[in-house]
């Protein structure tokens, strides 16, 4: 039986009437996205919301958190004055396990080094009615797909790849911890009503092409910001031909185009997956409301009428892709990779191939990669590159081990890492990375920003399907095209690798001895959540100060960031993950990866107090000590990437008042608002160039802060000359109240009395 089956049945029981009303209000056929959104409205309404404009309150069905972000979210929830979470919630211990040796040794090390954090999560989840998936249980998104995701549901999660659950027909959205706290506390959750992108898939995947290639192609079309403010809905015969976990892979990496989320209509592949994962009751319930769990037929017949943008992809013609380096939207068909690498000076020797992660760690993914490895062994080949496998869950790991796939990988010297994020989020103790040598790796992960996997800025990382990554690891050559190129085996023979094959689901069924789940305590009276004042890993939070109602005058420029400034640049992961529960300590990584426009360097900014250059956090701490407000200036899509709210909380904690950029990534903009920051955009993007290194900022009409009203900024340059520029903002009245109160959490506490 599924978790929370009664909740799921209740959602389905109410969905029909809500969808009928939405169809009547909108007076048109509905997309799947609209059905789910209107069925989860927090208030009954006759309003037809405007895509891309209306702010709307929703009631999500559940919340999921991973251990790195859960610490700060739960520390905030402890301040909300609630005895128990209001909706089903889980925490998954997957981010803090470093990949170094192998699964057994790395997991044992993590349990020792992270004991304090794991004990905190175990106790706080037990106390507040939250399910806890212990270290080694698996990666949050794979575990959610296996246990919690259900067609037509709505979920939020404190990780940008929460969107993975769209593979089971959910609207699943990545958020910051403060958003999760709202929902856990029983408050509505606010979202700007998204625009809709339809992706019509025709044909069927064949040969070396995999579901991953669909999203790699889409990323190439839309870019890292082309999906911002949008939900992507996939449909067509090609969509129905994909496995449920293949759909999950596509939705997972939709975060890399900035999409709010992605989803697919309910079909037989989802039913098969639900039944294979022992959720027959969910499948039966979904089958009773099938028509509600996909778009009205008119929508898919004439999609241009109902979506804001339509993309068509013929899977029969789709070629395997590699995306990168340094950005997940630089898409190259494998047939053109050798020429592109030569033209751009990319290193073609593949040093490491890594498969798995939350994006590509299903049974099907692993079985197809194993078929490539097995074929290579039979033909006298071994991997020329290092090769590792990261299973997505203990259930997958146990099952692939039972079915002999681990032994196959060992024959090409593959190493199985723990069921955790590992190298995908920088938790990889890669030998020699500290030398910062120029090199190439290929992986089946979702992101490939500079330094992300191993901390080396000169590691060129390329994203591909698990089967293609396996082939490239065997060849040791970035330009190898398995569709056409031969390899030389140990006998000197020229051999082709056979096209991959695998099973969508295990023929003998999934199996597992201990899935790693801890249910919350029934009696919480004696549970104490202890946080030591001496800890360098955990720190109780102090409320942020409310706005004093005055204009911000005399603010100094902290940094003018140039180019891509992701949440990895603002608050790095990797070794810094250990401080995710200690706001002051982790603030020592604030903006250390951002490139200073004035000198082209990272973590080196000019202090207007001393005239000297120093590290960003230290410089900001000096401003804070003197009570001087500061401004961060950024480029396009500022805050792209992870949902980590630390990228908003660190500047807030250290005294930054304003973030002024050309444009924001969705989650980061919301996180700034939630923490009481002023996140605004240049009304004229060219004004970015007017900002000088020693500028002072006066926000001369902030007292009149109101929805839709531009703000005026007076720049005072070093020669004393003033210059006025305008800034836009997207704050509605409720968000302005967050700003006034110092944070959304402060407002919740005030409303709770």
TrEMBL record:
Reading the lineage from the top rank, the first entry is Bacteria
Q: Does the keyword Protein transport apply?
A: no
> Which GO biological process categories is it annotated with?
tricarboxylic acid cycle
Please give the catalytic activity noted in the UniProt record: citrate = D-threo-isocitrate
Q: Name one GO molecular function term.
A: aconitate hydratase activity
Q: In which pathway does it act?
A: Carbohydrate metabolism; tricarboxylic acid cycle; isocitrate from oxaloacetate: step 2/2
The Aconitase/3-isopropylmalate dehydratase large subunit alpha/beta/alpha domain is annotated at: 34-476
Tell me which UniProt keywords the record has, alphabetically. Answer: Iron, Iron-sulfur, Lyase, Metal-binding, Transit peptide, Tricarboxylic acid cycle
Residues covered by the Aconitase A/isopropylmalate dehydratase small subunit swivel domain: 556-685
Q: Which GO terms describe its cellular component?
A: cytosol
Would the keyword Lyase be found if you checked this record's keyword annotation?
A: yes
PANTHER family, A to Z: ACONITATE HYDRATASE B, ACONITATE HYDRATASE, MITOCHONDRIAL
Q: What is the protein name given in its UniProt record? A: Aconitate hydratase A
Protein source organism: Saccharicrinis carchari
């Amino acid at each position: 039986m599924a978790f929370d089956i009664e909740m799921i049945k209740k959602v389905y029981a109410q969905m029909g009437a809500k969808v009928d009303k939405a169809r009547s209000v909108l007076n048109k056929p509905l997309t799947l996205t609209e059905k789910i959104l209107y069925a989860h409205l927090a208030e009954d309404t006759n309003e037809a919301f405007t895509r891309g404009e209306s702010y709307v309150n929703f009631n999500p069905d559940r919340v999921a958190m991973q251990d790195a972000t859960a610490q700060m979210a739960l520390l905030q929830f402890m301040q909300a004055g609630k005895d128990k979470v209001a909706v089903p919630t889980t925490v998954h211990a997957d981010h803090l396990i470093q990949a170094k040796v192998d699964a057994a040794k790395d997991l044992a090390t993590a349990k020792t080094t992270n004991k304090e954090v794991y004990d905190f999560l175990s106790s706080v989840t037990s106390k507040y009615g939250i399910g806890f998936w212990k270290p080694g249980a698996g990666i949050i998104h794979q575990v959610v797909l296996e246990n919690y995701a259900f067609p037509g549901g709505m979920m939020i999660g404190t990780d940008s790849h929460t969107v993975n659950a769209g593979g089971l027909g959910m609207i699943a959205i990545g958020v910051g911890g403060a958003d999760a706290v709202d929902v856990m506390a029983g408050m509505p959750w606010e979202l700007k009503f998204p625009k809709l992108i339809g992706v019509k898939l025709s044909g069927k995947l064949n040969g070396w092409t995999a579901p991953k290639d669909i999203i790699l192609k889409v990323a190439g079309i839309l870019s890292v910001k082309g999906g911002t403010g949008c939900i992507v809905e996939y449909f067509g015969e090609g969509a129905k031909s994909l496995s449920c976990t293949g759909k999950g892979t596509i939705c997972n990496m939709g975060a890399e185009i900035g999409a709010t989320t992605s989803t697919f209509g309910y079909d037989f592949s989802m039913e098969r997956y639900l039944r294979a994962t022992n959720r027959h009751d969910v499948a039966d319930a979904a089958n009773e409301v099938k028509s509600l769990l996909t778009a009205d037929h008119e929508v898919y017949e004439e999609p241009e009428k109902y979506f804001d943008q339509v993309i068509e992809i013929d899977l029969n013609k789709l070629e395997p892709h590699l995306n990168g380096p340094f950005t997940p939207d630089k898409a190259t068909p494998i047939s053109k990779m050798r020429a592109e690498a030569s033209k751009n000076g990319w290193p073609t020797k593949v040093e490491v191939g890594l498969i798995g992660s939350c994006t590509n760690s299903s049974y099907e993914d692993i079985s197809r990669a194993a078929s490539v490895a097995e074929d290579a062994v039979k033909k006298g080949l071994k991997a020329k590159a290092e090769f590792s496998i990261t299973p997505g869950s203990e259930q997958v790991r146990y099952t692939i081990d039972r079915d002999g796939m681990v032994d196959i990988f060992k024959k090409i010297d593959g190493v199985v890492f723990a069921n955790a994020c590992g190298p995908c989020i920088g938790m990889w103790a890669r030998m020699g990375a500290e030398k910062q040598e120029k090199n190439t790796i290929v992986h089946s992960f979702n992101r490939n920003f500079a330094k992300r996997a191993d901390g080396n800025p000169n590691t060129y990382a390329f994203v591909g399907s698990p089967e293609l990554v396996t082939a490239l690891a065997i060849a040791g050559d970035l330009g190898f095209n398995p569709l056409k190129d031969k390899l030389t085996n140990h006998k000197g023979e020229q051999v082709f690798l056979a096209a991959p094959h695998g099973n969508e689901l295990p023929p003998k069924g999934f199996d597992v001895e201990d899935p790693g789940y801890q249910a919350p305590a029934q009696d919480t009276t004696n549970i104490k959540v202890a946080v030591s004042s001496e800890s360098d890993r955990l720190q109780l939070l102090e409320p942020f100060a409310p706005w004093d109602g005055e204009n911000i005058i005399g603010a100094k420029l902290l940094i003018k960031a140039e180019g891509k400034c992701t949440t990895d640049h603002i608050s790095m992961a990797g070794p810094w993950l250990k401080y995710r529960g200690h706001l002051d300590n982790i603030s020592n990584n604030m903006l250390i990866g951002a490139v200073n426009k004035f000198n082209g360097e990272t973590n080196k900014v000019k202090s207007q107090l001393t005239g000297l250059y120093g590290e960003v956090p230290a410089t900001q701490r000096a401003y804070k000590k003197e009570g001087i407000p500061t401004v961060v200036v950024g480029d396009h899509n500022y805050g792209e990437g992870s949902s980590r709210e630390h990228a908003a909380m660190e500047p807030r904690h250290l005294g930054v008042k304003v973030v002024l950029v050309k444009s924001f990534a969705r989650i980061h903009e919301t996180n700034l608002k939630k923490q009481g920051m002023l996140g605004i955009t240049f009304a004229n993007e060219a004004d970015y160039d007017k900002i000088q290194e020693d500028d002072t900022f006066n926000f001369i009409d902030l007292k009149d802060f109101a929805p839709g009203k531009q703000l005026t900024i007076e720049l005072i340059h070093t020669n004393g000359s003033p210059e006025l520029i305008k800034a836009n903002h997207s704050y509605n009245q409720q968000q302005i109240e967050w700003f006034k109160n110092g944070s959304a959490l402060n407002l919740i506490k005030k409303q709770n009395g």
